[in-house]
From TrEMBL:
It comes from Bacteroides ovatus. InterPro entries: Endonuclease_MobA/VirD2. Residues 1-58 form the MobA/VirD2-like nuclease domain. Residues 408-441 have a biased composition (Basic and acidic residues). It comes from the Bacteria. This is Mobilization protein. Residues 369-441 are annotated as: Disordered.
Length: 441
């Protein structure tokens, strides 16, 4: 019947018809000739439009009525622009475009309906911003992206399982954006608010993504051996990942960084902290490297300028040294946040909070006043004097008693002696507490 209506059913017309089951809709392909058996050319103008009309006729479908019903249904959705209204129609199988204040709705190559653009614009509502649903959609998109082979597979899964259509804009192979048509909630959502398109179309496995991030970090370290965790963080934000304490975090999952990368980043963080002190000499640099356990002092830049707060800090220390009321400059410096570190005969004052390092020798301070002096042992603040030890009389007698026992053993009186009555049974009262009374004379 279809071929008859289309003009390809004359006696002797060759056909090759075969079925396909590779999509959700089983469909037929027909191969024939546009030359009729009598040699005339079969008319083929507007075949796409005529084909849709023939199909509608054979299926008993009133296309005009169906289109009107679909447009009414589309108007019930929450949308904030013509583009979003168009996305609803696209998800229903229609084409839509606007021209001169009119919206044209096409299907099967034929304009089925015309609507004033003002009518559609009057239905615009505020953009859909329900955070809970957007978060839910984000989780759904990412979950099914990871089990889909490509964009078409993802669209099929979302449509069949959740009634969600993804409508893309731009070229088929290079779309520039997409909208989410949420049929369950009759809403249209700008896709970028839920999941960036490049992330949506990233059909790599989680393991491949981690490998890609790790390779990216490796490249960053190769280009800049001193790059810090903070600088890497700024770069990784574009890939929606971050690193922390030797771990890579991505998409709610984590895995350890390769040890050499974690060590290099940790070292670079310490180098960055050292350079905040603006070390001006190799000696200052080496001291800070020792303090912060950096084994690559060659990576630390030696500064040509002191930090802005250096002069004020040095001035405070001079006030301390010049104050006759300060008996212990070292203690007063500690109160100002400085500690003293000594390297050979050179003394440094370091303020870790303010990132200040001052070479006291070079600045002309009297370093004798900050040298540690040996302390005499004290007890309760009073110098401790060693006194002669006096023995407790009872302990002294006990010691003598043991010495006598040793003599007896040497003389053969003991475990090997003939008479052991001295050891037991001599009116010993076992219930008595030994308080030393038996030793009194």
């Amino acid at each position: 019947q279809y071929l008859q209506e289309m003009g390809y059913a004359e006696p002797g017309q060759p056909w090759l018809i075969y079925a396909h089951h590779d999509t959700d809709n089983t469909h037929l392909h027909v191969v024939t000739s546009r030359i009729a058996p009598d040699g005339r050319k079969i008319p083929h103008a507007h075949e796409r439009r005529r084909s849709q009309e023939v199909i509608d006729k054979l299926l008993g479908m009133d296309r005009k009525k169906k289109t009107a019903a679909d447009i009414d249904a589309a108007k019930q959705y929450t949308f904030s622009s013509f583009a979003q209204f168009k996305a609803v129609l696209t998800s229903m199988g229609y084409e839509a475009y606007q021209k001169d204040g009119t919206v044209f709705v096409k299907r099967g190559g034929k304009v089925q309906e015309r609507i004033p653009l003002a009518e559609i614009e009057s239905l615009n509502k505020n953009s859909y911003r329900e955070r809970a649903r957007c978060q839910q959609l984000r989780s759904i998109l990412k979950k099914y992206r990871d089990v889909s082979a490509d964009r078409e597979d993802l669209q099929k899964e979302l449509k069949s399982k959740f009634g969600i259509d993804l409508v893309f804009f731009g070229k088929k192979d290079a779309p520039y954006g997409y909208l989410i048509v949420d049929h369950a909630n009759k809403t249209v959502i700008h896709g970028a608010r839920v999941l960036a398109m490049d992330e949506l179309l990233d059909f790599a496995t989680p393991e491949e993504r981690f490998e890609r991030i790790e390779n990216y970090i490796d490249q960053l370290l190769s280009l800049n051996p001193k790059i810090t965790q903070g600088e890497i963080f700024q770069k990784l934000r574009k890939q929606r990942a971050y690193i922390k304490k030797g771990m890579i975090y991505f998409d709610g999952k984590s895995r350890p960084l390769k040890p050499f990368m974690a060590e290099a980043i940790n070292r670079n963080n310490r180098i960055h902290f050292i350079e905040m002190f603006h070390p001006a000499t190799e000696a200052e640099r080496d001291l800070l490297c020792k303090i912060f356990k950096v084994d690559r002092p060659d990576l630390v830049d030696i500064s040509t300028e002191r930090p802005p707060t250096y002069a004020d800090a040095a001035g405070k220390l001079r006030d301390i040294f010049q104050n006759p009321g300060v008996k212990s400059p070292r203690g007063a410096m500690y109160q100002e946040g400085f500690i003293i570190r000594q390297v050979d005969d050179t003394y440094y004052a370091i303020n870790f909070k303010e990132h200040i390092l001052i070479n006291l020798n070079e600045e002309g301070f009297d370093v004798e006043r900050v040298k540690k002096k040996p302390k005499k042992p004290q007890r309760n603040g009073v110098p401790f004097k060693k006194s002669k030890k006096t023995l407790n009389p009872i302990k002294s007698l006990q010691r003598k008693s043991h010495q006598g026992l040793g003599k007896l053993r040497k003389e053969g009186v003991g475990s090997h002696g003939a008479n052991r009555e001295w050891e037991v049974g001599q009116n010993t009262h076992y219930e008595d507490i030994d308080d030393g009374r038996s030793l009194k004379r």
